[in-house]
Amino acid sequence: MKIGIFTESYKPYTSGVVTSISTFKDELTRLGHDIYIFAPSYPNCDEEDNVFRYFSIPAPTNPGYTLALPVHPGMLALMKKLQLDIIHVHSPFTLGRVGLHYARKFDLPLLFTYHTRYDQYVHYVPMAKDLIKDVTIKYSRYFCNECDHIIAPSHEIESIIRSFLVTTPISVVPTGIPLDKFQGGDRGWLRRNYPIPSHHRILLYAGRLSQEKNVPFLIECFQKIKRTLPDTTLVLVAGGPLEEELKDLVASMHLSEQDVVFTGQLPFESLVNAYYSSELFVFSSLTETQGLVLGEAMAAGLPVVAVRASGVREMVREGVDGLLTGEDSDEFAAAVIRVLQDDRYYRHLQVNALHRAEQMSSRNMALKLQGVYEQLQGGQHQQSRALRKISSWIRS
Predict the structure, then answer these.
(1) Phi and psi of 74, rounded to 5°?
(2) 2-176+363-395 classified as CATH 3.90.1150.10
(3) pLDDT tens across 283-342, in order?
(4) Segment 201-215, tens digit of pLDDT
C-alpha cells in the first residue's frame, strides 16, 4: 500500500507523536508498504526520502516547535503522481485538515490517530478556558466523524472519544516498542556524563517539562524520597516551557545538581542509555493517551512507579511490572521507597516489565495497524460513510 501521513510535528522535533510516527513508518516499510510523510519544515532539518515539508513559522509559546502553513505549491500534482491508497492523519488541525481535503478529493480512506487529549490542554489559553474546552470537544467530535476510522492508543482513550458522541469506528492500536533499539544499552552512561555519584540510585523521568506532565509534583515526591533514601538522584530527560521554573523550584528546595539532573532533550540513542543507566522510572503525568515512555522504560528492564491516570493504567499493570498511586506525594514516595528497598520485589517487577515490552513490540503493533488499513481497502470506507450519514440523519 501507499500510505500518506499528515502530521503537525515530525523530526527533528522530539515528542511522543513523532516517536509513534517514526516507529510505525519503520515497521510498515519493513512490511513492504510505501510511506509518504507530509510535515512542517524546521530550521536545518535533514532531508529524508518521501518526506514533504510545508513552510512553517516558529510557535510563539513552544521553542523548537513550528506551525505549518497549509499551502504547498505543486501538492495537487504530487498527490496525483503518488496515487496514495490511504491517508492517515495525526492531528485534527492544520495538516490534518489538509489530509482530510485530499482524502475527500481522491476518495481515499481517512484514518486519524487520536494522540492527544486536546481538551486537557486549555491551560495554554489565557482566558475563557471552559468555553475553549467545550469548543475543543465539539471540534474533536466533528473531525473524528469526518474520518473513516479512528486509532486510539488505549481503551481508555477509546471510551473518552466515544463520550464525545463520535460514531466513527475505532480500533485500539498502541504505539509499539522497537525492541531492536533496546539491545545493549550502556548502564554507566548517565554517571559518566552527568555529576551523579557512582553509588547513587537513579530515578528517571522522560517526557516534556510542561504543565500537563505534573513535574513539580514529581520533584516534591523526590524531596520526600531523599529523606529515606539519601543516596538517590532524579534525572529529568526532557525539555519544555517550564524548564527554568522547575530549576528554580529545585533550588528553592535546597536540592543540588547531584540531586536533580536536567539533561534537556536527548537523541534516541542517548535516551536508551539513560534508561539503562537508571534503576526506576517515575511518571506523574495526568493526561496521557498511552504514555509511550513507560513501554520504553520497560524495554530497558525498568519497573515503573506512576500516578494512576488515563493511558497509564493500561500500560502499567499494578503490582506486576510497576506500582500506581494517587496524586498524593506521600503515597507516591512510599511506593518508590518500597520498590527500591525490596530487592526481591524489584526483580519480580523487572522481569515482568521486560515481558510486557515484548508483548508491545513495534512489529506486533504495526501488524495490527496493517490489518486496519486492509479492512478499509476495497470501498469499505464508502460503506462506513454511508452508515454514518444514515445514523446522523436518524439522530436529527
Answers:
(1) 85, 5
(2) no
(3) 999 888 788 899 999 999 999 999 998 879 889 999 999 999 999 999 999 999 999 999
(4) 999 999 989 888 999
Top CATH class of 179-359 equals: alpha beta
Q: Which is nearest to 39 in space by CA: 103, 112, 117, 99?
A: 99
> Mapping DSSP to helix (H, G, I), strand (E, B) and coil, where does residue 186 land?
coil
Adjacent-strand bridge partners of 202: 233
Assess whether the region 2-176+363-395 and the region 179-359 belong to the same CATH fold. yes
Report the largest interatomic distance among the alpha carbons of the chain, rounded to a whole angstrom: 67
Which grid coordinates are listed for 19?
516517536
Angstrom distance (rounded) from CA 170 to CA 150:
5
Query: How many CA atoms, within 13 angstroms, populate the side-chain half-sphere of residue 191?
Result: 15
Query: What is residue 344's three-state secondary structure?
Result: helix
With b for 16 or more beta-carbon neighbours within 10 A and e for fewer, the 11-40 pattern comes to bebbbbbbbbbbbbbbbbeeeebebbbbbb
Domain ranges for the chain: 2-176+363-395, 179-359
